Structure formats: C-alpha cells, structure tokens
C-alpha cells in the first residue's frame, strides 16, 4: 500500500511538473507576477484599513472617556442657573469653570473644554474656562460666552444633547492650528436628567500623523510588492525558459538515440539477410558437393547407376510416412545419397568384379561403411547424416556389419534405409541375376521382418512402396540433391 501511494504521489508530482514546465515562459511569469502583486496589494490594503479603523476607534474612545470624566466635574444643578453673559463675572461662574479649567491645563492635547445646552433646537454655550481675548490671533474672541450660540453644531453633539448618550466626532476637523476631534458627554442633574453636555476638543495631530505614517508604510509595502512581483516574474520566466530548453534538449537526445537505434536495427537486419544468403549459398554448395560425390560413385560403379536417386526418394517417402520434419528429411536425403560413398575406397577389382566375391573380397567390401565414416566425419555439416552410411548394413537380429548392432540399437534412419537399399537392389538387374518381381520382393522383405528388418517398420515400408509404385519409375530422372 505504501509503495502504491508513493508511486501515485510520484506520478502526480511528475504530471504537475510536466504541466508547469509545458506553460509558455512569458505566460507563467506574468501569471506568477500578477498573482503575487494582487495578493500583496490586497493584504497591504487590508492591513491599512484595519490599522486605520483601530486608530480611529481608539481616538473616539479616548474622546468619549475624557468628555465623560469632564461631565463628572460639572455641578449640573447650578449649571442651569447660568443664563446671562453678565454672570461670567460672578464668583459662582468662576467656581463652576474652575474644575474645567484645571482639566484644560492638565491636558496638553486638550484645546477647548466647554458646556452647552439645547434651546429650541439651537445649541448655546454655558461654561468656558478659556480666557477672554484673541490669544490665538484669529480675530475672534477665544472665549465662548454664556448663551452665545454654537455655530453649526455637528450631529454627534446634537445627538448627545438630545439623547444624553456619550458621543464623539466621526471625522477630524482641521484648522490652521492643527487637526481636532471632539467628544461629548451629558451633564445630568440629581434626578438623572440631561441638562446639557460637556464638549472636549482634543488635538488629533498625533492621530493624523499616525495616519500619514501608515499611508507611507502602505505605499512602501506596495512598492516592495511590485519589486518582488517583478523579481518573481523574472525568476519564473528564467526557470520556465530553462525548463523548456532542457526539455527540448532531452527530446533531441531521445530523437538521436531513436535514430541510432533505428540505424542499428537496419544494420542488424542487413547482416541477418547477408548471413541467411551466405547460409543458403553454403547449403547449395554442400548439396552440389554431395551430388558430385554421388555422381562420382555412380560413374565408377556402373552396376548401381540410378540407385542413389531411387533410394533417396523412397527413403524420403518413408520419412514422411513416419511424420519426420524438414530437418530430419534433409538429414535422411544426405545420408541416402552418400550411403555407399565408402565404396570409393574399395579397389576396382573387388567393386567392379563381375562375378561373386570371395570371402576375402567380402571382408574388404564390408569395410565400405567405415570408409564412409572416415570420409564424412571431419565434415561437421554431415555429422547428423552419418547414421545411414555407417549402419545401413546392420540387421535387426544383430548379424549385420560393421558393428553387429541389433534391434533399436540401430539408428532409426539406418533401419528404414535398410528396407529401401535391399528393395532397390532386388528390383534392379545384376550381371548375375535378373531383377525380381514386385510381389516377390515384397514377400522376401516381409519374410525377413524380425531378422534383417525392423518388424514394426515392415508393413509401413510395404505400404509406402505400394503407394509410390506408379511414380517411382520417374525417380531416375530426378536431380540427386535438392
Ligand atoms: Fe552399402
Ligand atoms: Fe546401396
């Protein structure tokens, strides 16, 4: 299972690699660069807006907290008593603004702190610890006086006055002295009723400075992302191009290898054809040689003229009847053609003697199988065909020569050739007798089954003889070797 998973993983990795390396380099590079750039932009903008929101929320929370603290130092029950600007010179007014003034002095970020009330949907100042006069040089009295209308009250302020809920500005108000945001908290009397609000104007310069730093950081991040995208684009393009080049080189190598293999295969085929041709030529030469020897024997031994052709054909028919293959039949052909080649070593006075041989002459004549072996054994090609020349005079009962083999000790080729040789000799004229009739020869051979001949082959041979009787008369005209 582990091996299967490992193989599957390797296959998938290879397919993925093939898919990746098959993309055009410029496309892959542009895609990679674009993806990285978009991812960087999205993450930078997300970080920017997240930080912006956190800073904004922090600023508003601080404003609400400061305003709420300031509201606790205002005496709500007396606050409603201040309704005329003239009251600003009274000790009550000074006592009322004192806590607010203390908070204003204590906080470096606080620019103004004041109280307001809502009358007929208009906002009016009540308490303001700011000293009267134009200290900031804007041509306007810095101090807001009792029942002086607040111009253009912002919605958070109006909401705080109407609902008594602590609030803060939703945006920064810039002026020539800086940027400001305000927080608002209700002033509640002893009954819990909202009788006004405390407004606190805080310096938002730090907040806006932080926002500027944040924007610069975001732009710097986007610039770095752009450079990184460019670098990735170049790297991917280079990698893809190199992968393509390497792939092309591999293909070229594979093609060269294929061509070399094809050339090698063609050369091998040509060599095989040449070898086959030479082998065929060699076989023709061997057969021609065998035919030459056979003719030479026939020319010397006139008594056996045509004998080689006939016994060769009849032997082949016997081989076919026994179901022999082509190689065995070729061996039979060579053996039959050369069966008496040993007679080349028998002196003329014995071989060509018109009368019967003496016992001494038979001794010499019976040497012809051994002579055949001596002639043919050095020829490796004819080694398998030696059985017939060597053993064709052996007999089933062991009374034959040269070895006196019996039964199945005698090679099959020699056993079946013995029928053919005797058959053709008896069917041919000799100086000392006429050729025997067909039926007489058949009876003679049948009578020698078990003594001269293999009894199990006898009937097969006689059947073959019957089957080939009509065509055997033309065998004298056949070529010796096929
Ligand atoms: Fe012989
Ligand atoms: Fe013979």
The counted number of beta strands is: 6
Structural class: alpha+beta
Task: Please name the CATH architecture of the largest domain.
Answer: Orthogonal Bundle
Gyration radius (Cα, Å) is: 66 Å
What integer is the average pLDDT? Answer: 87
The CATH topology of the largest domain is: Hypothetical protein af1432
Q: In the CATH hierarchy, what is the class of the largest domain? A: Mainly Alpha
Q: Give the cofactors and ligands.
A: fe (ii) ion
Helix content: 55-70%
Order of helices and strands: HHHHEEHEEEEHHHHHHHHHH
Number of domains: 3
Shape: rod-shaped
Q: Largest beta sheet, briefly?
A: 6 strands, antiparallel
The poorly predicted ranges are none
What proportion of the residues form beta strands (DSSP E)? 5-15%
Under CATH, the homologous superfamily of the largest domain reads: Hypothetical protein af1432
- The number of helical segments is 15
Distance between the termini: 64 Å
